[in-house]
Amino acid sequence: MLKKVAVIGGGVAGLEAARQLAALGYQTTVYEKNDHAGGHTSEWDRLFPNRRPAVEVVDTLKSQLNGNPAIVLSTPITELLPNGDKFTLKTSNKSFEADAVLIATGFELFQAERKEEYGYGIYDNVITSAELEKMFTEHGTPLMRNGEKPKRVAFVHCVGSRDEKVNHLYCSKVCCVTAVKQAIEAKEAIPEAEIFCLYMDLRMFGPGYEELYKEAQQKGINFIRGRLSEASELDGGRLLIKTEDTLASRPLKMSVDMLVLMVGMTPAEGTSKLIYNLGLKPNADGFIGVSDYHLKPSETGIRGVYTAGACSGPNNITDSINSARSAVVEIHRYLSVKEP
Amino acid sequence: MIDFGYAPLKINIHDLDKADLSLMDWITARDESFRLCIACGSCTATCTAGNFTNFSFRELCHSIRRGEVEKAVRESEKCMLCGKCTLVCPRNVNTRNIIKLVRKANQNFRV
Question: Among A72, A250, A252, A300, which is least packed, fewest CB within 10 Å?
């Protein structure tokens, strides 16, 4: 009889893992809580570092599935229980069974309201990086609430990351390069605009990232080293922002038309509840803890339950795809060894 | 004005709304490599003049970016144009040329 594998989460990691599992002959089902697959990537306009349309990646992943594995949409799995050598997955009114489970529940964006001093949800033209992506998709340019193009835009790095005031000591990895990408796109959309990036470090760790940073410098993006302390609204709706110019060891202020908050990744709500019945605990950052960070990055410590993608920590798409494939190898080994 | 023995403090905050960036624009128009600094400090670390005075090429560039024209010009005079900074710059900023441009700009702007 065909072994069943349940993949929880239909983002890039879940889709890639499901494709590989199906190719290995497992009866694979992806359970996706939203009404569409593709996760956060499906809500992005273009991807770093080469600014390829995000829809290309999502569509390619989906087209490779061809109906096997099955994707069950609008099906949030709320409970995962051990059941002999199998597992039971439950929604509010349905129940499914599987021989092995891959948790690929991903991340959620940091709620920018929590950094109240940045004025998100209070001032009109303080937006998040995710909202800017939507603007690029819909209008091809940043737009202020009044429909006009901003003349001065500042990007704030590390919003909800590297900040123990919101209990997030960790770096979200992708925001630096995303800010640089979006800064270039904003400059291209509005060439006369002045664009600023407020950063603490620029963590350009991936191939093509440093090149993108240099491209931004060449296009006249201004980089200011310092963390935003606060934003306040001036008469007429402009925003006054304050930071320390740490390269000059002096405070700095300026007014801008629009402030873009580079929101980081936080553990998806429900993931820790999902692993609770298995006796698993989140790691120090609240993401799923893996058995061995170096040697067993796909294993959870429970045989038969594996993890892939950003549910075990911030990841870019490439790393999520790689972790999905790594998990598939472990699942394959687990199910093959169990075979009598 | 009556001298009360005290006066308002000098404001120590950079205000980018009021900064005079004409020198930065003038230099960038003539040497685009000025944009590429990543503030690593290699130039200052290797600087011969900087070993004997408090001259920092990195700081000089920063002064230009913040519109501190007088400071930039004053600092540029400490350089001996030996060019070691140009050899070490990891971003290939034409550092020696930047100094020469600052001096030239100073001659051009102040007759």
Answer: A250
